[in-house]
Amino acid sequence: MTDIFITEYQLSDDQAIAELFYQAVMAVDEKYYSLKQKTVWVKNGQEAAYWALKLQGHCALVAKKGDKIVGFGDVYDDGYLDHLYIAPSYWHKGAGSLLCDALEKHSLRPIRVHASKMAYPFFLKRGYELKETRQVIIDDISLTNYLMVKE
User: Fold this and answer.
1) Cα separation, 110 vs 94, whole angstroms
2) What is the pLDDT of residues 22-43, one digit of tens each?
């Protein structure tokens, strides 16, 4: 995707990130997560102020096509890749790989991620290994994710 470029996160990106996060989670096929699960997943991330707090103080990047944000992600200095979300219209078009490549370059090894059911194959193809299957409880709703590590 030569027309996609990666840039540093800016506070002015927060509203677009909140909208992209909501759209990406709600577009996840219900074979992975039910509507009820997706609704609790997006609960806090619908507000721009949430992302202003979550994405400051460490490496946070956005993928853009022109002026439009088509993805975002962040990684801490200790190697924890916290978020990696791509707009649904850019799924399977290389934006996720481009963004993940850039995040991995900013991180110490090993890199750890808590991958969703849908993201699990993406990280597996990138050389991450499954370490643990987890159940996260949000408002009494259980969501499965996978602790994965890349050495």
Assistant:
1) 23
2) 999 999 999 999 999 999 999 9
> What is the chain's Cα-based Rg?
15
Cα separation, 134 vs 146, in Å, equals: 6
Identify which of 63, 60, 81 has the alpha carbon closest to the alpha carbon of residue 128: 81
Please calculate the CA angle 19-25-26 and round it to the nearest 5 degrees: 85
Strands of the sheet containing 59-65, edge to edge, are: 4-8, 59-65, 68-75, 80-86, 111-116, 141-150, 129-138
> pTM of the entire structure?
0.96
β-bridge partners, 143:
136
The closest of 116, 150, 118 to 136, measured between CA atoms, is 116
Q: List pLDDT tens digits, range 70-113.
A: 999 999 999 999 999 999 999 999 999 999 999 999 987 899 99
Cβ neighbours for 141, distance < 8 A, ≥ 6 positions apart: 36, 37, 40
Distances (CA, A) of 47 to 14, 21, 40, 145: 8, 10, 14, 23
Count CB atoms within 10 A of the CB of residue 58.
Answer: 16
